[in-house]
Amino acid sequence: MSMLVECEALRDWVKGILCRAGAPAPQASCVAHILLRTDSRGVRTHGVTRLASYVEKLRSGEVNPDPQISSHSISPNTMLLEADGAFGQVAMSEALRLGVQGLDTGDMRALLIRECGHLGALGLYALMAAEQGYFSVVAQRTPALMALPGFEHPAVGNNPIAFGCPISGADPLVFDMACSVAARGHILLRARSGEPIPEGWALDAHGEPTTEAAAALGGALLPSAGHKGMGIAMLVECLSAGLLASERSIAALRSETGVAIQGAVGRQGAFMLLINQRVLSRGYFDAYMSQWAGQYRRKGGVDARLPGARGAELEREVRRRGSLDISEDLYRELCGLAAQFGLNFPAAALA
Amino acid sequence: MSMLVECEALRDWVKGILCRAGAPAPQASCVAHILLRTDSRGVRTHGVTRLASYVEKLRSGEVNPDPQISSHSISPNTMLLEADGAFGQVAMSEALRLGVQGLDTGDMRALLIRECGHLGALGLYALMAAEQGYFSVVAQRTPALMALPGFEHPAVGNNPIAFGCPISGADPLVFDMACSVAARGHILLRARSGEPIPEGWALDAHGEPTTEAAAALGGALLPSAGHKGMGIAMLVECLSAGLLASERSIAALRSETGVAIQGAVGRQGAFMLLINQRVLSRGYFDAYMSQWAGQYRRKGGVDARLPGARGAELEREVRRRGSLDISEDLYRELCGLAAQFGLNFPAAALA
C-alpha cells in the first residue's frame, strides 16, 4: 500500500522542514528539488527517504547549513570548489553551474569539490549535465566500507560513480552505480528485522563471509564482481579524493578507524568531469551514439532499455499525474518529522 | 610443465617473426617489447600467446604493418590520432609519447585514437604513463559481444578499461578489467575440449543462460555484475567510440551484425586521459595516495595487495632471472611459427 502526495506540495514541505532544521531557503529548495526528482525517477533509496538523516546531519553539524562556498581555477580546465561542508546537492549544483560556464566553446572541464555532503543519487547530476548538452562523469568517495575476503577491516569506500550522455532523439543515457554488491542500508534494514542477508553481500569482523546482518554491520561490504568493484572504487578514490587532497583530507583519512560507519558521511570529496562532446567530435558523437543506442535496443529486443530510460519514463508519468506515491512506512516517518517540526504534512490519499 | 626462455632472445625472436610477417622493425620491436612485458607481469592471456593471431592479422590485412599515423590537436587539451590500422601497441605508444609532451606544466590531456588494433593488456599503457609520473585512464571499444538475459543479440562490446596511478614509494597502482565475466577466449578453449562453462558466463543464441561452450559461442557473454558491467562498457563506448566517431566508424558500427566475433578485431577506437596530478593537487595527491595505499595494506592484512603490485614483483623476478617461463602448449605453438617463418626459436630449457 502506498500514499499519493501532490508533488509541489511535497517539495514545499521538504523545503519547509529543511528550513526549520536550520537551512537557508535557497539551500533547502535545491535539496528538496533534487530529492523529489530522484524519487520521481524511481530511485527510492536516495529520495525523500533521506530527509530524516539530512535533518539529523544539520542538527549534528555534520552538514553546514549556510556554507561559504568558494571556487577558483587551478588550471585553464580545472576548478576547485571549497564546499565548506555544504549539502552535496548544493555543492554539486554550484559545481555544475560553474562547470558549464564557457564550456559551449571549450572541450572539457574538471571540477574538484572539497568537503561536500552526501550527493544522493549521483546520476541526477549526470542527468542535469546531459540536459544541458554535456557528457559527464561524476564520482564521490566515501569512508572505508568494503573489503575482500580475509581483510581485517574495510579498506575502501563503496565509492559511487555515474556518467551521463545526451542521446539525440532519446532520453539521456544515465548510469549510476556504487561499488559494493549491496548498500549498507539494506543490511541495516535486515538487521532490524532479524532477517538474514544473501550470500555474497558482506563479511563479518574477521573477514569471513556471513549471512548474518548484525555480523555484517560490524564487518565490511563485499565489492561487486570482486576485484573489479574494488578497482573501480580505487579509481574513484584517486579522482575524488587524491586529486583534491589537502592537509585536512589527509588528516581525516588518517583518522578513519576502519570501523564501519552508518549512513552518508559529510565533508567528503567529489569529482565531476564535463566534456563538450560536440566540440571534440564535431558533431559525429551525436550521430554515432544515436545510431548505437538504436542498435542496442534492436539487438536487445523488447525488454532492452538504456540506463536512464526507465527513470525518464517514470518522471514523465509523475509530472503528468502531478503526484508522487510514497510507501506507507515512509509516509509514517515523514508524518513524524511533520509533528516534530510543527509543519503539517501535505494531504495524502491512498494510492 | 613449462619452458624457460631467455627474455632478450625471446623478444628478438618475436620481433623477427613480426618482421618476417611484414611489419617494419620499429613496429615489430614495439609490439615485441609490450608483449614481453605483459607476460613478465603475469598477464599470460595477453602476452606472446597473441603472436599467432597478430601474424594472422598482418596476413589478412586487418592490421596495417606500415601505417601512416597522423595526429592533430582538436583543442588545447585534446589530440586526435589517426592510427591508420596500426598495431594497438604502436598506436598507443605514440599516443602516450604525444600526450606527455608539455604535460609537465599542463593539467590534463585526452587522446582520441581512431582505427587502431587490439591494445593487448590495457594496464600496460596505464603503467607506462604512471612510470612517467602521470595518472591515466585507458579504454578501448570492441565490437558487440555482451548481452543481458533475454537479449536477441550481443549489444555492446566487453570494452576494457584500465587506470594507472603513481604511488610515492611503492609500485604504481595499475587496474585493468574487461566488462564481461569471462573472456571469449576461455569459452573457445572449453568448446575445443568439449568442457562445459560455469554458470553465469554466457547466454546462448536465444538469450538464455547456458553452460554449453559451443552454444555460448553463438550467443553472448554476460557482463560482470549484470547491469553494472553493462554500464561501464557503455561509458567506454562513449569515450572510445563516441568522442572520436567519424563517417567510417559509424558505417562500421552499422555493419556490426550482432553475430559474435572471434578474437581481437582491428581498427577500433581507443581513448586515453592523462592527468598531471602534481599540477592539479600541488603535491597533495602523492601524500594522500601514499597514505591511502599504506592504510589499504594495513587494513587488508598480510594478503592485501594493491592492483599492479603482484605484476611489478613478477616483473622484477623475471628481470633478475633474465628468463621467462612459457607453458608447454605455447612453446609448441611458437615452435610452429618458428618453422613456418624459418626463424629458429631460441634455446629453451625445462623449467
From TrEMBL, chains A, B:
Alphabetic keyword roster: Oxidoreductase
MF (Gene Ontology): oxidoreductase activity
Coiled-coil region: none
Listed PANTHER family: MALATE DEHYDROGENASE, OXIDOREDUCTASE-RELATED
Protein family membership: Belongs to the LDH2/MDH2 oxidoreductase family.
Protein name: Sulfolactate dehydrogenase
Source organism (scientific name): Candidimonas nitroreducens
